[in-house]
Amino acid sequence: xxxxxxxxxxxGNCEEAINFYRDALxxxxxxxxxxxxxxxxxxxxxxxxMHCTLKxxxxxxMASDSPPxxxxxxxxxxxxxxxxxxxxxxxxxxxxxxxxxxxxxPLDKTFWAEAFGMLTDRFGINWMVNCDAPNExxxxxxA
Length: 143
What we know:
By secondary structure, this protein is an alpha+beta fold. It is built from 3 helices and 8 strands, in the order βαββββαβββα. It is globular and about 40 Å long.
């Protein structure tokens, strides 16, 4: 998903929270994936939310349950998620945002993205940089 979106992290109650926000804000849950439906199965509660997206008007809120090894801290359990489809641009943004900050997950290929990384910038703001894997239609159009 291109652009910058808020990303919320929860400690096992993501589903309850996202349903609350859906009902309170009149939103639509447009995507949900559980840990048990992914290669990350077996990391704890397979029924926990690995990733979901809630559409509210023209805006989106993304959320997940944090893995037990990286619990969310209430009050700082949100990030700004940057969605891109250009690996070079993802690397540029990641490198610039991490200057003077702390890289919590280096930008690298994952099972869901061509590149994904997390950092906390020098002002204490958490960021996620995600570069979608190119799809067949984009590759064909570029050729």
